[in-house]
Design brief:
It is built from 16 helices and eleven strands. It has 485 residues and is an alpha/beta fold.
Length: 485
């Protein structure tokens, strides 16, 4: 069997036992990328030569008996908004097209220590603003299940790379569902940890109170392995939480019997397609038959989550993106004077969706409107958090569809921002409440497109969430490989 058909955990074990070499694994993925990447277009930057050199180094260390780490020789794809020393980090934006970071993000440092090999940087919506990866300044990525459809966003490149077996593991970032929604669209696993669990140091900021790095993988077991490696307290991130990471053994013990599951009424209502609803409820039925205790629960303030998010996130974005002014780094468009230079640089450097959100956020924060919009949105955010707190008094895990719709066609929604924003209606509340949540495959619809089910957990109780996801996956094998690309 080709290495690219094995899970990350299987690869790591075979490498450790010297049944396959890191160079053979790297060669297998390079061959796969050469075969399918022209159709999928998951990567902005490929680092294949560097990957081969690192594979040779890992092999030498392995042969000398050195401890080479849990992911020694296993390739990984990285979303292009996570800083990688010596490798371009563009955020899929013209304004950072030639930016090469002089340092590694903390998650990259941890992955290198674990022996993982970076195989490339993946495509995304510009500065993580979007739900389809069509907002990339360079090119759209295609869904491996149907090349005419989007892979979701903003971590669409990472999701497509794992789904098409161009990488066994990937990292993404999730501000309003940007890991879970593309995972759902591409038939893989996507996990957003609790805010503060994984360091954001080196993640290019979009909305700092919402952003979170997390894994995209082909199965839950690989997700647990990757989460275990990147979940560490980091003094370089002032929002990092000094809470011990659950052990691998604890997270790898599936449990469903006696787990109290709440179905969130508001996330099964208007806008959710019937086939999606049926697919998720069928998955829940399997959990109930396995011993879970299932009931419905209402979170009355969730209908306000979308407008609340689109005040808070653009407000933070307008502040974070003010640094791209053509002076310190990135694109600089010369003009007659400093102010014209600022204006030309930002006009030519940012795409339409980024400009739209900067204008929305600047307006919401401006004098006279702060109390009416931003402050009110913060109050609504507190009410949504309170709804979740109340629900978790009676339930261990909350469940909803990950996306209200299956993957849509490229170009279908790009000219209608409101329709595009609706694609995140099931995932945004989780970010506002800073909770952990995972999307796992729940089958295919009548067109053969993936449906995702979302499990939402209590803060810093990722172990319970992952144990339930593992139990579900063991009883319901993964989706078949996408079409032979």
């Amino acid at each position: 069997m080709e290495s690219f058909n094995l899970s990350a955990r299987e690869l790591a074990e075979k490498i450790k036992k010297k049944e396959v070499s890191p160079k053979e694994v790297a060669s297998s993925y390079i061959k796969r990328i050469e075969e399918v990447e022209p159709k999928v277009r998951a990567y902005i930057t490929l680092t294949l030569e560097q990957a081969m050199r690192e594979a040779e180094e890992i092999e030498e260390r392995l042969m000398s008996g050195e401890d080479v780490g849990l992911l020694a020789g296993v390739p990984i794809a990285i979303k292009d908004n996570i800083c990688t020393r010596g490798i371009p980090t563009t955020c899929a934006s013209r304004i950072l097209e030639n930016f090469v970071p002089p340092y590694d993000a903390t998650v990259i440092k941890l992955l290198r220590e674990a022996g993982a090999i970076i195989i490339g940087k993946t495509n995304m919506d510009e500065f993580a603003m979007g739900s389809s990866t069509e907002n990339s300044a360079f090119f759209p990525t295609h869904n491996p299940y149907d090349l005419k459809r989007v892979p979701g966003g903003s971590s669409g490149g990472s999701a497509a790379a794992v789904s098409a077996r161009e990488a066994p593991l990937a990292l993404g970032s999730d501000t309003g569902g940007s890991i879970r929604q593309p995972a759902s669209f591409c038939g893989i696993v996507g996990f957003k940890p609790t805010y503060g669990r994984v360091s954001r140091y080196g993640l290019v900021a979009f909305a700092s109170s919402l952003d979170q790095i997390g894994p995209l993988t082909a199965n839950v077991e690989d997700c647990i392995l990757l989460f275990h490696i990147i979940a560490r307290y980091d003094e370089m991130d002032s929002t990092s939480a000094p809470i011990p990471t659950p052990s691998l053994e604890e997270m790898l013990s599936p449990k469903v019997e006696g787990v109290r599951i709440g179905l969130v009424e508001e996330l099964f209502g208007e806008g959710v397609e019937e086939e999606v609803k049926e697919g998720v409820l069928k998955a829940v039925k399997h959990l109930e038959e396995a011993g879970a205790l299932v009931d419905w629960v209402s979170l009355p303030h969730l209908p306000y989550a979308l407008p609340c998010y689109y005040i808070i996130a653009p407000s933070e974005a307008s502040s974070n993106l003010a640094r791209y002014d053509g002076v310190k780094y990135g694109l600089r468009v010369e003009a007659d004077g400093v102010i014209p230079m600022y204006m030309e640089t930002r006009n030519k450097g940012f795409g339409a969706e980024v400009k739209r959100r900067i204008m929305l956020g600047t307006y919401a924060l401006s004098a006279g409107y702060y109390d009416a919009y931003y402050l009110k949105a913060l109050k609504v955010r507190a009410l949504i958090k309170r709804d979740f707190d109340e629900a978790f008094k009676n339930f261990d895990i909350l469940v909803s569809p990950t996306s209200p719709i299956p993957p849509f066609k490229i170009g279908e929604k790009i000219d209608d921002p409101l329709k595009m924003y609706m694609a995140d209606i099931c995932t945004i509340p989780v970010n506002l409440a800073a909770l952990p949540a995972i999307s796992i495959p729940a089958g295919l619809d009548s067109q053969g497109l993936p449906i995702g089910i979302q499990f939402i957990g209590k803060p810093f109780e990722e172990a319970n969430l992952l144990r339930l996801a593992l139990a579900y996956e063991e009883a319901n094998p993964n989706l078949p490989l996408p079409i032979p690309l």
